[in-house]
Amino acid sequence: MAENKGIMVYGELVEGKLTSITTELLGCGRRLADELKEELMCILVGDSLGDAPNKAVAYGADKVYTAEDALLKDYQTDSYVAVMEKAAKDLAPRIILFGQTSTGRDLAPRLAFRLGVPVSMDCLELSIDPATKFLQQTRPVFGGNARATFTSEVFPQMATVRQKAMSPLAPDESRKGEITPIKVELDPAKIRTKVLETVKEEVVGVKLEDAQAIVTGGRGIGGPEGFKQLEELAKILKGAVGASRPPCDNKWVPDSMQIGLTGKIVTPELYIAVGLSGASQHLAGCSGAKNIIAINKDPEANIYKEARFGVVGDWKQILPAFTEKVKELLAG
Amino acid sequence: MPLNMIVCCKQVLDPEAPPASFKIDPAANKVIPPPGVPPVVSPFDEQAVEAALRLKDQQGGKITVLSMGNNLLRDVVKKPLSMGADELILLEDPAFEGGDSWSIANALAAAIKKIGEFDLIFCGRQAADWDAGQVGSGIAEILGIPSVTVAKKVEVADGKAKVERVISDGYQVIETTLPAMITVSNELGEARYATLKGIMAAAKKQPTVWKPADIGLDASQIGEAGRRAKLLKLFQPVKEGKCEIIEADTPAEAAAKLATRLREAKVI
User: Fold this and answer.
1) What is the pLDDT of residues A125-146, one digit of tens each?
2) Cβ atoms B97, B212 nearer than 8 A
3) Å between A173 CA and nearest CA of chain B
4) In CATH, what number does B3-226 get?
5) Which of A139, A142, A324 lies closest to B129 in CB terms?
6) Domain segments of chain A as ranges
7) So what CATH class is A7-190?
8) Among residues of chain B, what percentage have pLDDT more than 70?
9) Which residues of B touch A147 (CB under 8 A)?
10) What's the predicted TM-score (pTM) here?
């Protein structure tokens, strides 16, 4: 039986380009491959991959495998798991890495159960045990209150990785790599789902994931109107507005503004948390921020354990003056 | 068309317990349950019950709730019955404890096979303790049925389910054949409260209790013994740094002082 060798990265594209998480996975995969002295493969699945395979090489892949077929236009569990199952068996990687994305969260567990192996989801750290060469996978658990390190002793070892947890390499267009198409043999009758519609929410201004300044409101904002003040501040800071889960669950703001364990992961320079207690599930989404500023009525609120600066008090009395002063300081 | 639905509900430590009360026993790699904080049904699982109840409201049918573990508190695991679910089956035995996604899905799938016919299985998108987010997909794979994850809306018509699936920046509408497994997310909306009538009806219902042998599995295939992922370490990362609290005589002054301090620190 073929020995399992090499790291495989499942890459994703958006608008024809490799996503940031894909470049991060390649950076991480490169490090692991170098440590194991094995190859880094990237697999791209879709209907029109364009120049992405070359870019995957530039970002560190030694080999890129492409599965291109009209039936693969939209991600669907049945078709993508079938393609990945065959790739995993034919190419026999030691490790397969996915992003913790909408696709990764669906594909990785189903594929793991198909292959009979465990998978660790939303990993923050990956390392090789030098003695056994097994992959050690560290991920947040208990809503982010703790971390757990797992390993497995069957191949392939699978993990999904949190966005922005790893760093990409600087792309090197002169890197050489092999690009190989994979034969796709799918039976349409075996695809039991159909994508009827994709509805994208309009993002006005800076996207949360890209914003360097974020103003986030929690339950303490009390309703949708309060968020207008946060928008004003965010605009001055050239940033975006986010929310913890309660404002979204209460329908004060759209679900897409949710930052947290099951929402968006953000790593801005500046994160201003207003009327937000700092529950672990929320912190899981923003703990990568460089500077967290907290404004909350409760001096015991958990957010103060993560914040660098804070003011204790009613945000309705603090935010207007804060916004004014920030405006003044930035203008001067 | 009345629907036969199964919902998997996990009893977990309350995720709303204050973070300061969260403690680990490092020698045992286990969480020490905070005193005085009762366990709850994992919140996304409650939303899974809600998704099933909405379909039952629209089309009629039956909801069977399945919970697994040891020393399950009847008050906790009966909550879905109080919300309107019809039947409760418990997989209750020490051998069911300590599982990973693999052994958990294996046991739940075996129980579902024993239950027999169903149109839909609902699970929460991830459990509030281990947050793995795999068991639903695992059950579907073992049973050989389609899966749709992270649903915010579920409708059934003409023998198919139409699911609004949350993706980043929006959602997709996915149609699936039945039977199918669907995981549910908070975007579905708040789970309904138990009604007094529901609580009284639930109090009269006795759950069915199954042991490993009842679902055709032995101890090596379930719980801790059946794990495929090995837990090496459970720990709390050390928090460094201290928060600098800006104070002043009035909130407005403190606000201005904060802005100035941030400028000074080159944060803005």
Assistant:
1) 999 999 999 999 999 999 999 9
2) no
3) 30
4) 3.40.50.620
5) A142
6) 7-190, 213-331
7) alpha beta
8) 100
9) 234-237
10) 0.95
